[in-house]
Amino acid sequence: MKSVLGPLLIPPMLLVAGEIIKCMNFYGLETPRAGLVCDWQNPHTYYLDTLVANMTINTIRLPFSYDYIKWGKLDIMDNFISDCEERNVQVILDYHRTWSSHQGPQPEEGITRQEFLKAWEFMVTKYAPSTNVIGVGIFNEYQGEDITYLVKMQNEVIQYIEKLFPKRFIYFVGCPKWGGDCSKMNLALYKGIPANRIFIEVHKYIFSGESNEEDWDKSMPRSIPPDRWFIGEVGWKNDVPIERLWAETFLAYLNKRNISNVCAWTIAHSGDTEGWWKDDCITFDYSKAALLNGFWDHSLKRTRESNFLANMSYIHYSRSLRATPL
């Protein structure tokens, strides 16, 4: 339900003990059509209900464009976020690109930094009262390699939003080279905000880098704790054996690294990865879902066991303190 008290100090759903981000990208609003994918076949609630029932999705990454804001017709986004809230699904707002027609190299492609900040001001002001809107995906995929530019831009957005809504949102900060190379990223680069409100967001596909453990170790440094990673986009063509094998290998690698927070790309009609529905928007790919479900089941069991052991250690420690004579 909507908050009548204004934005919450702590987002209510994310970072609950024993939970992980089980996420799906739901694209379409960032395109010239400005409509959710497959809405010509079924209402978006059909796809939400299927994802919740068959994959226990708890998060949607929702791409939009500067054009979408400028056009001023946000009723589809309003209804979608409200329907997510009814299903206890949280939402990450993803500034996917500036122009609806193409993915630009950086946010200031044809607009100023101030216009970019004002776009974010509009979005967070509009959706702060929606308690399931928990995340700010600052900019989808920076195509360049200038880490200094990228971090300065991200910090500027974070501080701008924090002045408007302190402690309200969690921030997802992308990496250089189309979001695929996080080798120079570090949580300490983000000043004045605790690390538990920052996720380093990386995107991985079979065509991202060398696609082997050595490359993944380099582009996803182990100096960043496992729970601070967010795989903001990952996808594969399930009927192509080499891509299915890549997905199995990458998910096994994530499990070995204890990285659990994953957002799949995308519902349907992706030329790069196909979708979780076939292009008829009717046929759900249960085999593809089973692979990701298996990964999440393993991750969730590991996370809950880890939290249980931590809690037991704390209980034993507390009891030992009480038992110590003065």
Protein architecture, described:
About 40% of the residues lie in helices and about 15% in strands. The chain is an alpha/beta fold. It has a single domain, classed as Glycosidases (TIM Barrel, Alpha-Beta Barrel), CATH 3.20.20.80. It has an eight-stranded parallel beta barrel with strand order 1-2-3-4-5-6-7-8.
Give the percentage of residues in beta strands: 5-15%
Q: What quaternary form is this?
A: single chain
CA(first)-CA(last) distance? 50 Å
> How many separate domains?
1
The sequence of SSEs as H and E is EHEHHEHEHEHEHEHEH
Which CATH first-tier class would you pick?
A: Alpha Beta
Write a compact overview of the structure shown.
The protein has 326 residues and is α/β, with parallel strands linked by helices. Helix content is 40%, strand content 13%.
How are the SSEs ordered, and which strands pair?
Blueprint: E1 22-25, H1 44-55, E2 59-65, H2 66-71, H3 75-86, E3 90-97, H4 113-127, E4 133-137, H5 147-164, E5 170-173, H6 176-179, E6 198-204, H7 213-219, E7 229-234, H8 241-257, E8 262-264, H9 286-323
Parallel strand pairs: 1-2, 1-8, 2-3, 3-4, 4-5, 5-6, 6-7, 7-8
Helix pairs in contact: 4-5, 8-9
Search tags:
about 325 residues, alpha/beta, TIM Barrel, 8-stranded parallel β-barrel, globular, disordered N terminus
